[in-house]
Amino acid sequence: MSKHEVARRGFLAGAALGAGVAAGARLLPEAAAQTHLPPAAAKVPVTAHVHSNGEGHGAFLNDADAETVAAFTERLMPGAPGKPGALDAGVLNYIDLALAGAYADLQDFYRRGLAQLDAYCRKAYGEPFAKLEAARQDEVIKALEDDKADGFVWPKAQAFFNTVRTHTMEGMFADPIYGGNKDFAGWRLVGFPGGQPQFTPEDLESAQAFTREPTVGLQGRA
């Protein structure tokens, strides 16, 4: 993993800890996850698929848009050996369900943002974002972050980047009931124990990350 990827992962994980791993708490219960993405065998390029049982996407995103979102979020939170990334944690599934429910007001924002993203990539590199090599994808993401990508009218490049980054963090670290954080991948990454039924006095006094199984989410407590 490159220094750039390590820094990106560190930023998102640190931001999740700073926020108390509470991202996504405002989502409605109907966005609860019944579906998840399988771990990726290869990180880039990422290809998304429609499954008959709805796994991965299909609530809102079509195949092409899902492929782009999967690739984009995986570059924001890339996986590494022993460290789950966005694809491993089901971030695509989280965003797809959210856009079909609690974030339905952002459907046109995503449609237009993804269309502008691919138009920019085709003009600059001759291929859509999902088909670019990892280094090129990172260049594109950096251009969006710095608001230097041409052709973005609405949403603006930086606004699109900020929104997808926020939703990537939510998909990584929100309770799994909302469709992401598959198998508590994000929580395990930052040492967050979830809704444990009780903590011992030793647990409360310890400065070490809490690792005792099982990690408990809203579904388990219900």
Which features characterize this protein?
mainly alpha; about 220 residues; single chain
Cα-based radius of gyration, to the nearest Å: 17 Å
Q: What count of structural domains?
A: 1
Biggest sheet architecture = none
How many helices does DSSP assign?
9
From the N-terminal CA to the C-terminal CA, the straight-line distance is 39 Å
Short description:
The chain has 222 residues and is an all-alpha fold.
Plain-language structure description:
The chain has 222 residues and is mainly alpha-helical. It has one domain. It has nine helices and no strands. The longest helix is centred in the middle third of the chain and has 19 residues, at 107-125. It is globular and about 60 Å long. 42% of the residues are buried.
Topology record:
Elements (H helix, E strand, L loop, with lengths): L2 H16 L44 H14 L14 H9 L7 H19 L8 H12 L11 H17 L11 H6 L10 H5 L12 H4 L1
Helix pairs in contact: 2-5, 3-6, 5-6
